[in-house]
Every structure is written in structure tokens, then in C-alpha cells.
Amino acid sequence: MNNCRVSGKPLNLINDFGDQPLGNGFIENKDINKEYFYKMRTGFCEVSKMFQLIEQPEPEQMFHDNYAFFSSTSNYMKEHFKDFHSFVSNSGYLSENPFVVEIGCNDGILIKNFKDNNTSHLGIEPSSNVARIAKELGVNILEKFFDVECSNYVRKEYGSADAILAANVICHIPNILELAKGVKNLLKPSGVMIFEEPYLGDVIKKTSYDQIYDEHVFLFSAISVQYLFNKVGMELIDLIPQKTHGGSMRYVLAHKNYYEIKSSVNEIINNEIEQGLDKLETFQKFNQNVIDSKKQLLKLLEELKLNGKKVVGYAATSKSTTILNYCGISTNLIEHIYDTTPLKIGKLTPGTHIPLRDHRYFKDDMPEYAVLFAWNHADEIIEKEQSFLNNGGKWIFFVPSVKIL
After folding, report:
1. 129-179, pLDDT tens digit by residue?
2. CA-to-CA distance for 246 and 267, rounded, in angstroms?
3. What's the CA gap between 194 and 88, in Å, rounded?
4. Which CATH class is domain 62-281?
């Protein structure tokens, strides 16, 4: 795929991360020889202004019964999605007895709030292990990938939607024009789509290139989202910046000319033009910043190793897979990584094969340095692991720059 998935025009190569495994492809020792790799490169389209992966694994490789990401493991995210529910419920866009659909509902962390408030709802989730947890919470679930065919099925079985929601999902869907058509098809005339994703503007500003991995086929700007949905007769009517994932954006879209467009849309699009998110040169500079960040992190870890320091990792995120493989970091520099997800513990990191340990041992082991891979949850983690700092431990960050706390 060397052409933009939205405009069909040729992509300009931006980053080349080499061969990468699946971001969530945590493996057992016996399966090392079966590991899946693909060439991870990014491109920018000067027509759609869409920043995207050039190649991406098939969805079935990434989202399946062993999918290793569970949204509800973070208390911060639970609170965030309660606020998301309140935002939707009080937005003024819903009818008296609304029907709300969530695309990619994971373990039900967001849609459960609608169920708990007796709102007619449906969660659409293709990974059966996380869908099973949502079902156990009493959430109505449809185990499918969302597309036009799925939207026809939902409309026939449940009716048209007042709101279609998604959180950290839309950027995962390669056939995004098909998704946009499905959304338009399923929404009532007064219906809205509200979704949020890691924000391209923050990724460029912070050089947070770990946001680029197999599942994130796109990183969106308001300019690119506007271009995409204009193609199917929808438009941006509101934009609300979010703190999640180190900087996200909440997009509100509706059928063209149904609602008044809020001032936030023009303000943020103008900011993006000032930042250069519509220009190729901005992304070429981003690539150089990524190369520099890699060199700085490796230099620090190699110096600590030479000085006999014990370095571990904290939080085996899908984002950490990009950092570890691109920088060539394995047990030569990081002994093991602590994590909270039961499905990951006892396994190895994708590609670099660093052992994963239960985070409960972190307090006992008390390493000298810990690379914080879930830097976007830094406040929550540092508060939880306060004893690490109290005992002289030091956190290593790599976003927005390589530094020791």
C-alpha cells in the first residue's frame, strides 16, 4: 500500500522503523520461532493530510481471542470514560430515548456507563476475549468488525443510532472510508459520531513515536478527519482536546449542515496550519527528531550498563514494542519489565524477548532505574510506586525527551 487509504494519492515516506512484530504480540518462549514481523514505515499524503502506516498486518492478526489489551486495568481510564459518558449524555445531541453504539468497545469500560443508566446500547467488538468480559458486565455486544454491511445489520435489527462512539479505535481501521460510509448509514439525521484518538499534533510536538505501531494505522489531525468525513457528506462540528494517551483529541461529527459548527473547529484547524500539520517538511523534521531520540535513549542505557546499574522496564505497553525493536533494546540493556496485565505476565516482549514480571514484585526487587513505558500514565504510576523513589530509585523517560527523574 503505497497510496493514501483516503485520497488514493501516492504517500511520501516519512519513517522507516524496520521489521516490527505486533505491538500486542506478547509470546511464550516456545513460540519464539513462530513470531510474526512486518515492515513498519509511515507515509504522509499531501492531499488528505493523513499520516499513516504504509503497510499494516491483517486485522485478524491483531484482534483475536488472545488480544492482550484490557482498558479497565487503568483506574484513570475508568474515570475518563465516566466523563466521556457524561459528555455524551449532556451534549444535547441525544433524543429522549436514545440508541447509542460503540465501535470497538473492548471490555466495556465506556459503553457500560450507558448500560448502567438504562440507555439502549450496543457494543461492537471483534476480539472475543475482551468482548466476553463486556458481556459478563451485562453489555449488549455484537462480535464483528464494523463496516457498511455491519451498519446495515445493526440498523435492521436495532434501528438507527443517535450517537456512534469510539475511543482509541478509529485509528486502527485501515479501510477507513468504508467505516465512514457505515457511520453515515447508521446515524439518524440528527445523529452524531463522537470519537477520540491520540492526537497527531501532540505526537509531532513531543516526538512520541511510540504511538506508531501495527494497530495505529493512522494518527489524526482535525484537518485529515475533516477531509475524510467530508467525502461521505459529514462534517466536524466540535473538537475537544483530551489529556489521555499523552494528548488526544475528541472529534464530534454530524451530517453536513444539520448543526452549527462550533468555534473550536476553526481555532484548532488554524493551530494545526501554524504547526505545519498540512506540510511535508514538518514530518521530515519529525523523522530526524525520532532518530535523535533513539540515539539519546541508547546512549543513556548503554552508559548505565557500563556503570553496572540495574535497569528494568515498567508497563509492557503495545507502544513499548516500537521503542524496544526500533532501538534494538533487549535483555542486553533491560533485565525485565513489570506489568499489571495477567495475560502478559510470564511471557516475553514481542521481538526483543524481555521477560515480563508481575508488578507486585517491583517493590521487592527495587531496581536502581526503571524505564517508564506507560509515560502517558506517569502520574498514576509514580503515585502508586512512590516507595521506588523513596528508596532511591530513578525513573527514565523518553517523551518528550530522554531524561531521568
Report:
1. 888 888 998 899 999 999 999 999 999 999 999 999 999 999 999 999 999
2. 21
3. 8
4. alpha beta
- The 10 Å Cβ neighbour count of residue 131 is 24
Q: Which three cell numbers stand for residue 119?
A: 440507555
> Do residues 205 and 275 lie in contact, with contact meaning Cβ atoms separated by under 8 Å?
yes
Determine the residue type at 377. Answer: H
**Structural domain boundaries of the chain?**
62-281, 298-404
> For cell 459518558, what's the residue?
85
Q: Is the pLDDT of residue 201 over 60?
A: yes
Which grid cell sits at 230? 467530508
CATH 3.40.50.720 fits 298-404, yes or no: yes
Q: Please give the radius of gyration of the chain, using alpha carbons only, rounded to the nearest integer.
A: 21
Q: Per DSSP, what are the bridge partners of residue 218? A: 52
Query: Do the beta carbons of residue 167 and residue 81 sit within 8 Å?
Result: yes
Distance CA 218, CA 68 (A): 20
Digit-coded pLDDT (tens) for 17-75: 999 999 989 999 999 999 999 999 999 999 999 999 999 886 555 554 554 445 545 67
Q: CA nearest 207: which of 267, 310, 297?
A: 297
Q: How far is CA 251 from the centre of its chain?
A: 15
Residue at 291: amino acid letter: I
Sign of CA pseudo-dihedral 338, 343, 345, 346: negative
For residue 11, the 8-state DSSP code is P
Buried b (16+ CB within 10 A) or exposed e, 379-389: eebeeebeebe
> So what's the pLDDT on residue 160?
98
pTM: 0.91
Domains 62-281 and 298-404 share a fold: yes
| Cα(71)–Cα(113) distance, integer angstroms | 14
- The arithmetic mean of pLDDT across residues 186-201, rounded, is 98
Give Cβ neighbours of residue 383 (< 8 Å, ≥ 6 apart).
none
The phi and psi torsions of 299 (rounded to 5 degrees) equal: -60, -45
Q: What's the residue count for the chain?
A: 405
- Extract the C-alpha cell encoding 183: 457511520
360's CB contacts (< 8 A; 6+ apart) are: none
Cβ pair 120, 98 in contact under 8 A: yes
Peptide bond into 400 cis (omega under 30): yes
**Residue among 167, 215, 196 nearest 318 (CA):** 215
CA contacts within 13 A on the Cβ side of 208: 22
Pairing state of beta strands 248-255 and 187-198?
A: antiparallel
